[in-house]
Each structure stands twice: as C-alpha cells, then as structure tokens.
Amino acid sequence: MVVLQNNKKAFQNYNVEDKYEAGIELEGWEVKSIENHQVDIANSFIKIRNNEAFWVNARIPAWKLGEEKSKEEENRERRLLLNRNEIKKITQKQERVGYSIVPLKIYRAGSNYIKLEIGIGKGKKKFDKRQSLKEKDQKRRIDMDRKRYNF
Fold first, then answer.
1. pLDDT for 99-145, tens place per residue?
2. CB distance 116 to 25 below 8 Å
3. pTM for this structure?
4. Residue 20's domain is classified under what CATH number?
C-alpha cells in the first residue's frame, strides 16, 4: 500500500470512529494526476444520494502532459464503489446529529487500484481541539523522556 495523500485536517476537526475502504470511479487523466500526488482532499467530503456515495469537492488538476481540463471537470463529483450494506451502515451512522463522512487518505492498493479510506466522525468543538493538542504534547514529552533515560 502506497499512500498518495493524507487528510490531516480530518483528524484535527473530527473524532473518527469508523473507517471504510472505497474504490473510486476515475478517468485516466485523474489516475495519472493522483499518482503524481496532485490531489487536494482537505476540503472534500462524502455525500450519499439515491443509495450511492459520491466524493464531492475533491480537486484533481489536469495531468501536465495531457489536454487541458476545465474547472468543472477538475472538481466534479466522483462515484465511490461501496457495496449496498456498507452504504446502509454509513447512512445510519451519518444521520445522527453532528456526524460527517470525510476522506482520510487516498492510496494505491496493489498495482492497479486507487482506493479512498473514508471515516465517519463527530465534529470537534474548539475546546476538544485544545484538549487533543494538550494530550498530544504530553505524549510527545513522555516519549522524549523515555528516550532520554532509556526506558
């Protein structure tokens, strides 16, 4: 598994509870752009409509050596390949108040497939973000002390 792009904002803004793996319906130029790490997933989200999942607001710029694409094509909705039971579970969890479906990372599985890991999480409030930063800082200091004193 080769990670092509991580969404660091997702873990800063959401408490991710469940993760799912989804295939993406892409065109050829989009695959080449993603493999060259030219994808922006930070502001994107997942929308479920008519029992189908769509990846919305993900910007994949046109491949440099290919033909030019319009802004609409770069930001188009891309269908996610999930089975019916997974979509049913995801919609049930998303219908709770405060929960969202966000992309976590995009990676190459095997040699031919590009997958998207999506997570269902509840949005953090400002004080939750401060608390998680405080815990992260404490953990980092403990690890540094362990390393310094050979624990």
1. 899 999 999 988 789 999 999 998 888 888 888 889 999 999 999 99
2. no
3. 0.78
4. 2.40.280.10
